[in-house]
Structure formats: C-alpha cells, structure tokens
C-alpha cells in the first residue's frame, strides 16, 4: 500500500524573523536558516496541506507584523514570532493534502510561510489556481491576487471613476499603482503617476499614463501637482501618505475622492508627518477612505472576470521584479521601503 | 387704481460689513446703519420680491465671506462687500412681489440680507413656508431649514448609522449637533457630545444624550474619549476639527465614519492645527467625508416628512438662542466663535 512508502524528509530553507524592526525593515532583521528538515507528508489526523512554495509575494503591510507591541495593527493581527519563519501570500504546489478541497498536484495561491516547504495544519485562505496557459503563475502574487484586487476595489468601489476625471496615483509603478493607472485609462480618465526613478517614470509612460514624474526631482510637490493638474485632481489613489498626501489635499477638486490604499512613507516612523491640509476635506467636500483588500474579497470572482480578458489579450501589462532564491527574500522585501524594486516584488523559490 | 397709491418709504436699519476679519469675527467688524430708506415696492419691470425680515440665521460659514482674498472659499463664493449689508438665510414676509411664485403676505425662508427690509431683484433660493400652528417661524432658520437638513444629510447619508453604534458629536449643543444627537437616539445608537459649558452639558443630557462632557474641563481629550468610548467610536459627527479631530482619529473603530460638517476651530486661524493621526484613516479603514448642505437640497422634502411628526409630537426638541433687534446681530454672530451662544443662534428682526 502507498501508505507504507515512507515520505521523503528533505532540507527546508527558511527566512526567520530575527529582530523587531526599528525604522524600515532591513535585510539584517532576518536570518536564513538552512538546518531544518521537513517530512513531505501531512500527518495522520490532520486536515492540513503540505505545500512546495513556488513564489512569495513581498507586501508592504508585512512590516506591521515586525513592529512588536508598537504596531498600529497590534490589536488586529498577531505579529511574527522571533526565530520563526515570516509568513505572507504566495503561490504553491500541493505535495500532500488531507483537506477535502485540495489534491496532490494542485496549484494554489494564498497563505504560506517564507520557507521552501510549508505544512499548513489548518487551511484559512488558500485558493486553487485554474491553470491558464500564457499567464505566469507568479501573477497570482500580484495582478491576479491581492494587488490586483486592491487596485480593483480601491479604485472602482471607493472612487467610482467617471470618464474624463483626473486621477493621480502615488508610488505608481508599484504592485497596485501600475494597475490603477491602467484601470483609469480603461475608464477614460486622465492619469498621472509619481515614482522614484527615471526608469520608473519611463515605465509609467509605456503603461499608458498621460504623465509621470520623479518625485525625487521635485523640490515642490505642490508645484508639480499644479503642473500636471492645473484644474485639480478628482481622484487620488494614495499609496504614500505623509507629505505626499498633504500636498495633494489642497489640489483636490470639489467632491474629489481619496482612496487610501497605503501610506508607506509613514509605516515605520517614530513620529509620523503632520498633515496641515486636512481642512480641505471640508472645503472641497472630499471623501477620504481607508480600506484593506479583505474588504473586497467578495468581489474576487467579479474582478477575475474583469481582468482576465485584459491580461490574456495583453491590454493590461504587469511588471514584476522577481528575485530568484529564498535567500534573496530579505533583500527583496526590504526593497519595498527603499523603492529599489521595479514593479511588483516577488521571490521565486521553486519553479522549473 | 391701486398703482396710483404711492408705496410707503420707510427707514431701513442694516448690518454693514466694515472690515475684513483678522481671526474670528468680532462685533467691531460690523457697523449698524440707520440712515437708509427703502420704498416698500418692487420696481416696474423687475421679477423680484420685497421682504420684511423676521428672523436671521447666524451660521458659522458666513465668516468665509468676510476673509477677503484669504478665504478658503474665495474660488467658490463671492465675499461680502465692504460698506454693504451682509447676507445669509432668514425667515421673511413678502410685502410685495412681481415673481410668479410669491404673493404679498407669503411667509418664506431662504436668502436675504441683514437689514429690516430687503429687495431681492432676483430670486435664487426662497421657499414658501406652509404655516404650521405650534411651530415657531424661527425654526425655519434652524431645525426646519439648513441646520436640520445638514444634520439629516450629514448623519444619515454620510454615516449610515446602525442600531447599537457609538456616536460622538462635537459642538453638540449647537444648531446642528443637538439634532444629530437626537437622531442618533432615534436610530438606537449610543451618543456622547462635547460642549463648552456646564449648562450646555446639562442641556445635552436633557436632550437624551447618553453622555456629555465640557471639553474645557478636560486636559486630555483622548482620555475623555476613552472614558466615554472604551470600545471606540463608530461615528464622529465633526463640527470642530483641529485638535478635536486629531484626538478622535485614534479612537475610531474599524470601518468608522467621520462626517465633516464643520471645523469651526480652524476657520480663522493664520496657521491651522496639524493633524498627527491621519494614518488611522488607513489602519482603521475609516471613511472621512466633507460635504455642504447644498449636497442634500434634493432631500429637503424627505427630510421635512421625517422631522415634522417628531417636532409636532415633541419627540425632538430644539433649543434656540434668540436675540431681539437687528442691532444685536453683530454680537449674536460673533457669539458662534466664542461659544457664548446656547443652541441655535437667531436674530429676531420683526415679529409680533
């Protein structure tokens, strides 16, 4: 009987959480462990799955799980444990399953840990991938996963864009921003993005943005916004926060909408930047709304039905920055906060 | 023929705009003129009306029309002219009309000027009052006018309150706040208000607020909010802004709503208070929305159908602070900014 064949025990490289962060995450806040082993089999009596991790998603929110008791999300989420592998979203292959929804050989995306093989004793958020030829599996860490759903929910649900409206996207070449810009064009909007390098600005233009600027070359962000939006901004898709948001507020048009997807400039500051221009929320009758992708999970199928034709017919492009090898994970993750990534940051663990 | 009877010419007292304000409006920014006269007749060829002003509404937004080119609303509204009477909303009697919708003897509410008699050459926003016995006419400056519609739109449309939710109202004894608190109770919410005197705090309790505090007696507003909202705030109806809003933000619950009706603490500052806690909009997934009563004009009849039974059956109370005589206008208007008014501030001009 197959049950008698002993499952192999293999080495299992891991990215361990080494210390609570002080400021933005750095490579030295992690440690690579190569000593562990894992038996590639779900134990008897478990409902779990055993995963081989193919791609891991680098997401900015993970820093909140590294801040210990100082985290603004300490009430909501349990943080990473020192000495344990960090976790997040990824694309994996099911090597063994005692869960009724999954079978050996399935490709899945969802929760996993930053290690080569992961045993999940309990499945909470794991979704089977319907394999599409021509679509890279890594896309399920981004455009077809949380980043895509974030762009979709945060733009269409929160902003209710109308044809001809003027859209600004900060951190516009990132995992979410590059999609929001392309969605804005599909909706007939004028869209301008900011990013942190000449290459990223070029990318935005290639993706169809009407304008793009390097915020590092602008001494006066307010003047830059006025240059691209002489008549003001209807929709701000906010990824940066702090001084960027403060410059945007007085440039908003009446009844403008600010969709707060992220405030990456503020996550790891000891003292956050003050906002001087909050009163424009009143005077310009703005709606400013914060949200999390969890708020839009119910829209996932609708989103997939919307985005797949665009992806398959190459009307929407998606730029990924893929590092190869789990040991590059700490570098790749830290890159989100220095801006040295170019597009959606992914770690490739295994994939032939 | 009646046309041959000469219309009387009478003295017409006025509140004139004397100087652009520097800081909050003061009595000395106005001047009372008693020298003008007016013929109580609409001129031939006009489509206008001639009004006898009964009650004038003191509204905080009027200060934006007194700030000259420094006004945050300079783009949107033309300010008052020096040496001319200020304008606003009021309740009036039609003494003469060449406008098809109005007849001599009609009672109306809407636009007028701060003078005893007003000739409006063009009617833009004037509404006939269906006379209800038992309802004071002055209510059309407040609960049955813009203040009531503001409370209704800003609470029900923006906040979508649900039974059991926790509501905070700042400047809660004011023209709008006292109504929002009572609407919150009608909707089955828990509601706490802040105000600036012991008497106002007592009033809020009499109006049915579950709790009320004098913000002047609280050294630490954050601590006060935590005392009344140990589990956080679902809905903030914001009238004050600045430091008050900054203390509220970290006390909001997940998916909370902040309806920005006003920011009276910020209107006349040279440099507005910075907001340190804007990032909670993201972390608590808040919706913060600014609006103006103009956004809800289409709901006026629906609002009246809602509020009239409550008023007639005395389930909702409304507290007015009425000064008698147009010459008291500058004092009454300035009182909004010192908080020395007690309830909706009204100026009674004529009424037997």
UniProtKB/TrEMBL annotation, chains A, B:
Pfam families: ADH_N_2 (PF16884), ADH_zinc_N (PF00107)
Domain of life where this protein originates: Eukaryota
Domain Oxidoreductase N-terminal intervals: 13-121
Alcohol dehydrogenase-like C-terminal domain span: 175-307
Keywords of the record: Oxidoreductase
Keyword NAD: no
Molecular function as annotated in GO: 2-alkenal reductase [NAD(P)H] activity
PANTHER family reported in the protein's UniProt record: ENOYL REDUCTASE (ER) DOMAIN-CONTAINING PROTEIN, PROSTAGLANDIN REDUCTASE
Protein name: OLC1v1007947C1
């Amino acid at each position: 009987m197959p049950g008698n064949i002993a499952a192999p025990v293999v080495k299992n490289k891991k990215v361990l959480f080494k210390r609570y962060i002080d400021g933005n995450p750095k490579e030295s806040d992690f440690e690579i462990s190569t000593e562990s082993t894992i038996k590639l089999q779900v134990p008897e009596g478990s409902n779990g799955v055993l995963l081989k991790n193919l791609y891991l998603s680098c997401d900015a929110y993970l820093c909140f799980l590294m801040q210990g008791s100082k985290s603004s999300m300490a009430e909501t989420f349990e943080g990473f444990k020192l000495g344990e592998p960090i976790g997040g979203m990824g694309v994996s292959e099911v090597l063994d399953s005692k869960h009724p929804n999954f079978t050996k050989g399935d490709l899945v995306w969802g929760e996993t840990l930053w290690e080569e093989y992961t045993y999940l004793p309990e499945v909470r958020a794991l979704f089977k991938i319907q394999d599409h030829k021509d679509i890279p599996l890594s896309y399920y860490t981004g455009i077809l996963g949380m980043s895509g759903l974030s762009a979709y929910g945060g733009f269409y649900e929160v902003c209710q864009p109308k044809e001809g409206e003027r859209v600004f996207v900060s951190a516009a070449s990132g995992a979410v921003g590059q999609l929001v810009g392309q969605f804005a064009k599909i909706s007939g909007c004028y869209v301008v993005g900011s990013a942190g390098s000449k290459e990223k600005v070029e990318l935005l233009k290639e993706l169809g943005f009407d304008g793009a600027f390097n915020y590092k070359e602008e001494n006066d962000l307010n003047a830059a916004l006025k240059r691209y939006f002489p008549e003001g901004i209807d929709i701000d898709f906010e990824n940066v926060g702090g001084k960027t948001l403060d410059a945007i507020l007085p440039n908003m048009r009446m009844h403008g909408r600010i969709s707060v997807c992220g405030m990456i400039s503020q996550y790891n500051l000891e003292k956050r930047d003050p906002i001087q221009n909050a009163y424009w929320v009143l005077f310009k009758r703005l709606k400013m709304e914060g949200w999390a992708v969890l708020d839009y999970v119910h829209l996932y199928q609708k989103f997939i039905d919307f985005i797949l034709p665009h992806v398959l017919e190459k009307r929407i492009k998606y730029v990924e920055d893929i590092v190869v090898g789990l040991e590059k994970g700490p570098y790749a993750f830290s890159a989100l906060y220095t801006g040295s990534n170019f597009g959606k940051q992914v770690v490739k663990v295994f994939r032939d």
